[in-house]
Fold each of these.
Amino acid sequence: MEAQKALILKQDADGIPMANICCKAGIRRATDFNWKQKSGGMLPPDMRRLKQPEDGNSKLRKLVADLSADKEMLQNAIRRKL
């Protein structure tokens, strides 16, 4: 999906009419408009670079949630022993 989005945005940047691009890709013009709004005119390599921190952040959030659950479990165990 990302590759298709990148190809469509590149074709649009190259000056190919949007009606032709959307027809060939089988998407609505509104979908293309939303993609352009989110990408801000960036090329695919820039879009990938921008997405990398988001992926890292989600991994870190999961890790913090796991560690928080472990911490609470250990604190409960200590309270029971005292």
Amino acid sequence: MKSWLLRKGMVFRGERLVRSDVLVVEGEVAAISPDLTVDTAGELGIEEIDASDCLILPGFIDLHVHLREPGFTDKETVATGTEAAAAGGFTTVFAMPNTQPPLDSEAEVAAFSALCRRDQRISVLPIATATRGRRGTEPVDAAGLRSAGVLFFSDDGDGVPDDAIERVMQTIAAVDGIFINHCEYPAVTNARFHPQLPKEAEFKMLERDLAYVSTTGCRYHVPHVSCSESVELIRMAKERGLPVTAEVTPHHLLLTADDVRPPTGHFQMKPPLRTEADRQALLEGLRTGTIDTIATDHAPHGTEKECDDGSTQPFGVTGLETAFPALYTELVLPGVLSLETLICALTVGPAIVSGHNCSLVPGCVADLTVIDLIRTRSVSREAFYSRGTNSPFIGCVFRGWPILTLFQGKTAYRHCKE
């Protein structure tokens, strides 16, 4: 196995950035020190990289991706999706279960896990459905799925309806799982773009769910928060000590409904882009810790998103490869968000929610990414590793791109200079 000596990078340790060298040997971080001496680096097969303009970070963790496999491999596969993840600096992703068939049983989860072991470039962990067949009626066998290693349960894409929500949350609470509900009341939703997908569809269902969190004790993770009312509900729930965490996407942090332009299908997502006031509330929620993580909600589609005005187009954004450079360029460089806050939201936050370890310390598995803060390039769909091309950032010029991602010490992604 190849070994690495990363020289003079800014290493993220203890939620601080410290300039150090990092030595990776046999799949582990062997040493971290300001001035490592490796006299026989060449003889030992150690490749040295000048990381003086770079960050050396724990591999990012994404709690919310759609890999489309099984069932929709024309849009993405485990292989292409994890290539895209590695290119974006991610070493662990959690895959949503709205596949065909859906991941609603131990057998389906086992089959998906076997597929991942064969094709993944990084770690893929399955999320199971909350109800059988994602039909919103009968809860899944949460105990069996927990024994198979599942932590999260979600019917993502559809919210669990009123007549099933209490039973679902009781079932998940009984096995100490975490419920992720797609907060969208269909009765409130009557069209596709903002403002016809009103924020009430989100925060009214969230308000309902939090009442059941209080009575069931179910751990609850709020996906893709998009409006100020939801941020306030989450803040109050945390103040009450409820077991609630939350995520926000890069596109909701960076864009509003006023940014929608042709091809409008690239801006067609759920929940929709909202107002500048909502965007500011999301940023403040992230700064204060009300929102715990950034998750991409990577949902790849192809050129069908460019065929008309978007009114009949599928929802979703291709997001794994652009997450860090977009947020670094648009939020960190102008001073809107601290670099440490951004890094924590992609590493420490999701690690705490999911029970993972993401510390860079000697002896740990070498899941890490190296970000070149000087590297600048435009977003091009031709350069995507993902099969998805539906990005609202096509043509944007961003700084701060990953140049190396190691998964268990092996090269999952390496930038080849143009």
Amino acid sequence: MESRITELEIKLGLNEDHLEELNRALFRQQQQIDLLQAQFRELYQLMLSGTSGEQRNLRDEIPPHY
């Protein structure tokens, strides 16, 4: 009986470690998602401000090394 309890305690400890590791991974992923969403919103705003109907000069779009 004592060995079964010890075995269950070991399994419980391992499961707690795995759960904590999964929580840390999930937290990092959520941070990455938040960052990507912020970057997407910024790009979307830049796109909207660039398509305000103004005439664009193609000369302005030539890379500086030409």
